[in-house]
Structures
1.
Amino acid sequence: MCGIIGYLGKKPIVPVLLEGLKRLEYRGYDSAGIVTLSNGKINLVKQAGKISNLESLLAERPINGVAGIAHTRWATHGVPNSTNAHPHTDCGNKFALIHNGIIENFGAIKTDLISKGHEFKTQTDTEALVHLIEEFYKHHMPFEEAVRAALLQVEGTYGIAVVCSDEPDVIIAARKGSPLVVGHGDGENFVASDVSAIIDHTKQVSYLDDDEMAVVRRNGIEVKTISNLPVQKQVEQVAFELGRIEKGGYDHFMLKEIMEQPSTIKDAMRGRLIKDEGIARLGGMHEVMEALLNAKRFLITACGTSWHAALIGEYMLEEFVRVPVEVEYASEFRYRDPVIEENNVVIVISQSGETADTLAALREAKRKGASVIGICNVVGSTIARDVHAGAYLHAGPEIGVASTKAFTSQVTLLALITLFLARHRNMSAAKGAEIVQEMAALPEKVEKILGLREQIKKIAQLYHMSNNFLYLGRGYNFPVALEGALKLKEISYIHAEGYPAAEMKHGPIALIDENMPVVFIATKDSTYEKIVSNIEEVRARRGKVIAIATEGDEEIGKRADHVIYIPQTQQMLQPILTIIPLQLLAYYIAIMRNCDVDQPRNLAKSVTVE
């Protein structure tokens, strides 16, 4: 959500900043802007829409300089337009600031500053902060102290980078609740909201924590707390290669990431399955091993796609570990004073590791004394650093806004946790070996489903102009119905609903007619006979049935208009297979509707505001 890059160094500055912004496009944005410093002046260019619009404007109005900052904005306060785009400047054009997050008390700050003669140009909360810095600077505070004084008055969340025309060799960055990383180079240094923005130039980074400020100069980076205490930051090596954030010959990142799933599922299991013993190894969980093994109750909290994975985890843990599990939206968990008792374990799930609501839920759970486990994808993310213990997905960067490979990796990791706990409690070695064998076979089975792309594309062609879809599943496949519907609505803008199949009779059946495609997840499992009855109910109302079924199931073929067959697997692992055709169906429908599948409107990859 929003993107930040700043640079001080020897290279031509505008190409560095523009390339960084392009690496951040996946986060979601509606405008972009850039500031450079030269000859004691601030040079500002910003534009609504895509970065290509900003590039065109820069071709007409070229700028250069010795330092600069750039930003992609996802609107919170003020409509998306060129005026509200970042960077924002003060009255005297001495300061320029970019900001991710929300300044909650900006109204009071703005009112006070207007009474002191400040003039505001935008509808944003961010502009209040740059004017506040100006106000302190006017009272003879040094640049760094003026920024610090302003931040001490701010309520809310921020990741900022700010420059001053009086000090062209300094960028000041600060963080509270919104991720920031500083990059270390040779005679050049960087600030970014995401390492992908700077991976072209350096792999040596330090992650800022909340209430920390970095004073970045071309020959060094000094980190302090907002209250001016020195901080020694560890310099870490970025592990992933640039090629992992390129399209690799695919038309879209989303398709690339769907096609990567045989590898990413295998990577999620790598070194964690012990085939001879039928158990799982979870090296990152050692610090909470006793709490895990003795847990009387699990709470899983997440948002969006990660919440759907959590629901599948609930079914797994309750069936095989025999402990009660509750799944909550993190946005609700953080506000409703949840009951957390002794011997409770909280699992937080987030692809980015920066989701604001999930991070707040994590901190609430820790405050109440729970052992907190994290499942996330981004190494060095805030959630990864704040939990007591956890495990990485090892899925590699996920650029497409609509999550695909992270979802199947999350479900895979929840299956590993389930297997680990069940084998330590009550699961036999024979059953454990059976699950391990099936898990090891998943990548090959996913590869087989991906081979059905042309069949799925033909189904998409028939229904891409539909206005509504209904997705139905039972048991483990009910969360898959939710996730399949979410994928379609996210990238195609078609209204889609996921429901438990049995609940169709309690409302959604009223919507079904000859124009309503209904997607059934109808694999051979313990609820198979029931879902066949649900298909008949839809057929009786002339609904169009698209079924995901188990290979060899001829009965479904007699009842459905279209059948996509997938390999057989353990019931607990079915969601990893059944979601694949639904991801592809959503992708092809969106392409046929000429939608931007990688950057769908109004959405952001990492939701770092409430």
2.
Amino acid sequence: MKNIRKIMSVAIAALIGSYSAMADEGMWMIHAIDAALEKKMQERGLQLSANEIYNADAEGADVADAVVSMEFGCTGSMISDKGLLITNHHCAYGDVHALSTAEHNYLEEGFWAMRSDEEVNIKGKRVFFLKRVLDITEEVEVLKKEHDVQARPMGMRKLSYILETRYKKETGLEAWLASMWDGSKYYMALYEVYSDVRLVAAPPVSSAAFGGYIDNWEWPQHKCDFAMYRVYTAPDGSPAEYSKENVPMKPKAKLKISLGGYKAGDYTMVIGYPGSTNRYSNSYEVNFYQTVRQPVCNSIRGKQMEIIKKWMDADPEIRLKYSDYFFTLSNIQELYSGEVECIDRFGVIGKKEEGEKELQEWIEASPERKERWGSLLNDLKTKYLSVAEPERNVNYYRETIVRGTRISRACTKINAFRTAVMTSQGMTPKKSIELQNGPDPAETEFCNTFRFCGNKYGKHMSAILKEYEGIDMRVEKDLFRFAVEEYYSNIDHAYIGEYQKELYDRYTSVNGTDYLGLADSIWENSFFTDMQRLERFISEEHTLTEYLTDPLFRFLQEVKVTRFNEATLAAEGKVSRSTLNKEFTHALYQMRMDKGIVQYPDANSTMRITYGTVGGYEPYDGVICDWKTTPAGILEKYQPGDFDFTLNDRQYLLYRKGDWGRWGFGENGSQMYVNFLTDNDITGGNSGSPVLNSKGELIGLAFDGNKESLASDVYCTPGYNKCVCVDIRFILWTIDRYAGMSWIIEELGI
């Protein structure tokens, strides 16, 4: 009876978490928290004023001053007076991978700087602190009108260059122009940028990425997904390039860490730099991605993952080489697959169509609106139907020829090499895409007769050889074999090059096409596919033609790309999809303005705030998910020998012991949470964002979404969109008890 009561109490708690007051959808601009939004957040539980969250004119610090952009790919937070920054491990994955060797595999061992002099500078890493956001819509409109009068239309790229240069010169800060609602509003964000950033801590993937890609986008999860960097400045506190003389930064603000925990229904907010959403998309655009683009990407990338994982599981050296690439590939493939599934499951296209009926009625109600947008929806429908077939071919081309293998990057460097050779001899080489329309006689003669040694062009040869550092030829050969068959089997053969057609005919008989033989004939005869052949070829004297006629280079380059472009442009007609999509956004924005509907712009890597509550959810009928996970779940999932679910001996013993010390809670500190759920509205770029309580204190880091949220790029589904977070107490326990970094705990002043 006790067990039944216990099970019922857990289910009831989960239901309470699931059906607590739902957050309002929206990634709100941090500088535009008006009185109405402030009131809504306070009604949910916020104990701060809007000015305490963001106020560029305040003399003191606000919460947003402690939140930074990690080069607009992830978000971080300042948590100490000595420049300590916390973000997600998967945001640091590439840095940790780059530092790893067979002798010191920091991905699997973890990276722990036990003293400040063990912190490692990450070359090229930059951290952006937002100083101010300015509404410059009127200034933009004046500039555009001036150029229109001079018959010099101004696109976003030129507009950004002019205005960003102007504001950078005037303020001394990094300036970035952002267009909202496809040009309905313009804002200039000003940043102070720091470029001496050093890695301090990163747990092993068995902790940070426990469950691997299998648990990615799933719930429950059990990841300690964090990493720490330190920002350094010149001795006077100003931004500076790396130097041994630099000192830890004294940030204007730092986040206070809360050990008080949270419960279902508690207020949360997330501040960060969400990358992009497309919620102003129309039904025809969504249907195009759903039926034309994503199925191609998902199918091919899924099979590429199978090929790579087979080799990674068989050879630790290959795992090290391909781990970063596989991590990125799996993340995107899982995202796109889940997006297709969720768009269908939640009827997103139908909901878009319902909104478009309302929009059409609003358009019809005004002669001016009808003149501008009366045929807009029909034009969109016609446009997307017309481009479906050429774009399907383009997608197969991109997924097989362009990115089907990693060795293809080395081949593309040959074009830069060709340009350098010809330029050094006083010639003006044609672009490679121009040569696809037919050979240039003068260029052909030069390539056939000019003899030289490749080592003379060391810079370009180094660029080619560099592409081989992180690849294994056995993996690449399998990927190439797969790419060849997918390419020939799915591309309209009107687009294949002459050399490709010649090979296809040679290996095709009444019994079908021998794709394996075709691929192997290219592979075995290319100097690109064997390091000894490559180095010998470069060191010997050859004509440029001998480089350009390498079978692998020819196969990858002799695609009639211009015909792809021509087919798409012909289908586009005079007015492009992008122009029509832009008009749709303008119409939707104006309708909502007209009806007094409060709206937020699509995410575009500008600082945003979302608010919500802690709580579980019901992903399917009769399936109730709790809002938190514990270390017990790690032990339940633990599978020795399975890389994604394995633990090292120290982790296993510590989890089994369950001694959480001062980081635990409950009776005698016996409890610990690993991950928890909120309904904050997030997307890519929010990774590493601080999850804050009602007082603005740090309780965790956002690191993932649930599978049911994967349509949120185009549509937010209330009740299903969840933000997966790692508990700050579990992070601190890992730093303290697992890694033994007591000096960091002391620095945090906890």
3.
Amino acid sequence: MTTAHLDTFCEDNLPPRELWPVRDWTGAPELAYPEQLNCAAELLDGAIARGWGDRVAIRWPGGQWTYRELTERANRIARVLVEDLKVIPGNRVLLRAANCPMLAATWFGVLKAGGVVVCTMPLLRERELRYLAGKAKIDLALCDERLRGECEQAFAHGRVTCWNADETAELDRLLSTKASTFDNCDTSAEDTAIIAFTSGTTGEGKGTMHSHRDILAITDCFPRYVLKPSEDDVFCGSPPLAFTYALGGLLLFPLRFGACALLLEQATPPHLVKAITDHKPTVCFTAPTAYRAMTALLGEHDVSSLRKCVSAGETLPLSVFDGWQQATGLKIIDGIGATEMLHIFISASGDDIRPGSTGRVVTGYQAKIVDDEMRDVADGSVGRLAVRGPTGCRYLGNLEQQRKYVRDGWNLTGDAYMRDADGYFWYQARTDDMIISGGYNIAGPEVENVLLEHAAVAECAVVGAPDEERGHIVKAYVVLRPANEGSAALAHELQDFVKARIAPYKYPRAVEFVDVLPRTTTGKLQRYRLREGERPQ
């Protein structure tokens, strides 16, 4: 196995081998990849070789590209990177744009050239971009012209090259001079392909390093064995491609199976449900909060084109699952993944779904429940979720966090789970969201799920608040639906509502009504900010 990376930054900043998780590629026959592998070449040039050149690969409001057109655009970008921008294999390249065809093309172009992609979300600001650029030692950014300002401020000592809609920006001009062919960099399967930063649900984002082999592995596990797409499917969704959930679900998975990706720059629930009505996609990837919001909008929109819906990023409340199924007839496919693991490793679909359960281990992975000493716990007992398989956590230059996440070769995701006798995994809480109150262990998300069933509640977050008598008490931060006002009477009503549905000791002894909840740029709830006493704005 021969590395192609002349810039050895990524290799130099991998954790020591003894801190790597066990990565097992024997769990599915599709995972037997060659030692020299460029995942962009496999997904694009491989698609042409399979006869898919004239199929539509990417659609967007206003246009479409075939697999051949996408490949040719990526080839031109790779030529610009090598010939004009002097990128050498192993250099990191930051990408900045909303979900659009050029973001996809630049993603593939960087990998074809042997570079390492650092994809960022358009909502990030100068300070955040500067942090990522410094952490990953990035000197070049490819950026949508509309987002140039903060990117240039963050890259004061680097280069920002932009594209725009009318193809008059620097990158577009350079592309117009290039041939549509390119000799792909002969990367090793273990060369780093992307550095994906966690979304910061527990603080500052951490860089996770994933190889070309990892990128293909996620396309050959969850989608192949659980989702089971067809070449006629059109994928859509809301997360930005910088979020690994979206990278797989909105780009890599459809292309692996000869299907089509519908990329939307605006994908809030009202925009997403309208796009489903207008463009008739068949597969949707989004978060529980979006399914909940879209359910309320279905009376004005037609989503009958959908045949499969996937949820990840945060726990799927049973009330959201039930509401969506009642409105559409579709069972949401729940799943748990992690930026550290790259994509979903526990899930279930179709008749295998047990409402309320995340599912069973995806083919290619192993998972178990352990105690704090890494000893297996019995089925039916709550413990820490440990997982391993073809992908795993390798933090960029962060040994302290690496030692916390990987133990004895297993990835510890930070989730408390229970496994039943049939091998189904039931989410309890993030391990730091378990509230110990008066000697009882209380899972904050369980209380949240009950509160969400109340007609007045739009969103909520439940955390432990310090209490002299009980150690901690359960505290609920509640966002109300329109036409409802927070009051002591409503707080008591919510408390009684919870007591009537789960063990009374779990009810929120404190209820605070707020306008918004703290979330990451990908929409994940940041409970740690509430635990630290930060008031929602």
